[in-house]
Structures are given as C-alpha cells and as structure tokens.
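Hello again, I could really use a second opinion on something today. My current little project is about how a certain protein chain folds up. You're getting the sequence in one-letter code plus the fold written as tokens. Here's the protein in full, and shout if anything looks odd to you:
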Amino acid sequence: MTTLRNFLLALAASTLLSAPFCGAQVTNEVAYTLLEGSTLLDDCLICARPTIVYPLRGTFSLVPLDANPLFTRYRMTNIALTANRGGAEQRDVAGTGLFQIGGEVAVVQEMRLDLKFGTNSLNFTNDDRVVTRLFPLIEISLVQTQFNLLQFFSMKLVAAPVREIWFSTANGFTPANGQQRGEPGDVLSSSGRIVKSWSKLVARLNLSPVPELSAIDALDIGPGGEVMFSFDHNQTSATLGTIQHGDLVSNLGRIVARNQTLTREFGIMPAVPDVGLDAVMVRNDGEILFSIQTEMLAERLGKLLRKGDVLSNRGQIVRSNAELLSRFHPSVPKDYGLDALYVWPSGEIWFSTEEGFQDQQYGPVLPGDLLSDQGLVIYRNLELLSPFAPMEDLADFGLDGLFIITDVADRAAPPRLTEIVHPSGSTSVSLRWEGGGRVFQVERAASFAGPFFPVSPLLPDVTFSEVIFGGDVGEFFYRLRQW
C-alpha cells in the first residue's frame, strides 16, 4: 500500500518548475501552438489547377540543443499538425526538426523539418531568413525541398509558446458534447473545459443578495492561483461592502485594488468614484495594466484617457488604442475599446476590442476575436470556442478576459507541499501546496525515476484530489509543475 513516507519522499524530491525565459534563450522544453494564419499549400507546378489551401493547426515543442554568442539552436519535437479543409479533406502531419535563431548584424532564423504526410516523407526549409516576429513567437514560411512538378507543398507556421488560453465570454453557450453549460462569468480553457465557474469565483466574496449569473469584465491569475477579476456592474458584499464594477477583486474573497487606487496617479478630473475596469494584467513587480470603460481627462498628463488605451496604475498610458490597432486597417478610424489584455515578455500585446470593425485585410473583426498589436488575428472567436462546440447560432460570443499559460513565464519560487491525505484503506489521495506559480499541474509516476504523466488538468488552485482505481494501490510518486 502507498505510505505517507513514500508520498513525502516523492513530493519533496521531485517538485518541478517550468522553464524560464531570458532574452532568446529557452532553457527547457517549451510547448508551442499554431495560430490563425498557419497554412499548408498544395500546388501543381505544371498544371492549371488552383492551389489547395489547408488551414494548419497543431502543436510542437522546442528543446534547446546548444548556443554560442551569435546563434541558439533548438530541436523540434512532438510535431503533431493537422491540415483540414473540413470533411474528408484532412492531412495529419508528424515529424521532427531543427530551428536556429540569432545573428551578428541582423537576427535571422532557419528551420528544417522532416515530416510524415501519411506514408510519404517530405523535408521542408525556409528560403527567407528574415525574422518578422519577436522570439519566442515564431512566424516562418517553408517550402518542400524535394522537387515534384505534380504535387509541391509549402507551408506557413505562425506559432506561440502557448499551452492553454484561459478566457471568459460575454454570452453563455450550450456545448454540443453534453458538458456543463458555459456561462458569461465562467473562466474557460481553449482545451474545452470550464476552469472555474462563476459561482466558485464569487463564493468567498459573500455577495448579498446572491445575484444571478453575471459576466466578468477583466481577468488575470496571480501567484498561488489567485483568480483576479472585475464585475460588469456593482455588487454588494456582506463582508466587503460595495464592490464597484471597476474594482479588481479576487476569488479569495478580497479586493485587490479599488478603482480609485488604480487611477489615482492620473489625477482624473472631474473626480469620479469609478471609471470601470474592462481589461487587466498584473505584472510580477506589482504594476497593474488595465483599461477603463468611461473616458476621462487625466489632469497630470493633460490627455484624455480613452476606453481602448492600455493604462498603468503608475500614471502612464502604456499604449493608446490607435497604437494597438496601427497595423490593422479599420474602415472607420476610432477608439474601439479594450476588453482583454495580455503582454508577452517581448512586448507584443494580445487583446480583444469592445467593438468590432471592418478591416481592409481581414474583413469583419469581431469583438470576441483575439488580436495582436503586430497586426495579426491570433484566434477567431468561434475557433477559440470550437472545443466546446456551442449549439447556439452566434458568430461571436465575446472575449471579456484573457490569461495565457506559457512555458516562457517568469520563474517563480518552488512550490512547497503542506498536506498529503491518504486515509488507510482508501484509494483517494488529496494534496495541498503553497507556491509562487500562477498555474499548477500534478503529475504521477509508478517509480521515482518516472516517467511522470499528468493526472490533473492545469489548475489555478493549490489543492488536488484523485481516486486511484483498483484494490491494491501500490506505490506512486507525485511531482508538481507550475507556470
């Protein structure tokens, strides 16, 4: 039978941290996800048939091989891509590769892929070495190296080091697969699950009277898995009093920052109690980036704060809405608001707008689409929700909160297990821990040497319980990952 000593030994010795990111260095395996704009092209070089375009989606990992003052090389592993035009027109692609980035005068990139297309083996490389996105994000065009006049493949990869995207929607939906209904205030995962329901988010805030389900207007995950958010309208708490819709609150039952505190350094005139809170990101150094719902004059800056600007609680306009959209081409120039926000270590900003717009390149851009300030559509709203397969006939469910789980997040102090509960004769195990990470995952192995496999989803929690099926549990070893 599993003993407490065995659990303590395994857990104390095998706690694992995610990889840090410094400059252009990736010090451990980093999981990547293909984004909107990734395509596979099937051409015939000597016939008149049209090019067949397959949207390309999937994942791969980068593992560092070696580095010198000029270049860093990575092995590409776990390549699992799908080119799908719907129906039977699907190609599954797998393989390995090499990726190199760096340079003396200008930063350049090289990629070589050895891929399996069903029973066919094909090699790809890039002719154009120019870097168009700041690493660790990758954008690269590749061509088949084997010359074939009748069928010639090329591809474009647009990828980011994303494990999951957590978000909330403005509208509820009914999953076609029979899962629990998604509500506007739920925290959802791009993997197709509800990470934290609205009722669990607000349980410790002691709202009185208990309101009906309500959307949230901002979302971020703090150290220890604390979920921070704002309401779309004022609430009353039996313990905290009035919670303004512009206050940043927490599922731990506290007010992280009053709206007046967030805007204090701007010297807003005329003074108002609350200007709303539509997007938020709390940096590791305590700086809070956010957007507001009501345009106001910042007397200390002598500028108008617009609802689509990225603001800092240190009294700065980090990025105006016009700057966020400068690489897009809206048919009507205006402030389109800001509903969700994430800033990468490279400085690239992912966001959603409060209002949709007609773009000269992308066509309709909806409020729930995830965009990049590099002028890219990262995810269309319906694709982000596609794992849920919503039954409702809506073109857009909105995107009111955003958090990215990535292997290039800043390093946090190692987690520490504080409690292991394994009742005698029971097949259940419960774990509790403390840690500076924002997201955690529990892994289990049958031996100390591994291999370890995930037994929990990615969690914004510091507890986890599982039931080990079977009469004789035997010995198991656990470890924690955190991001």
Summary: Residues 182 and 334 are 32 Å apart (CA to CA).
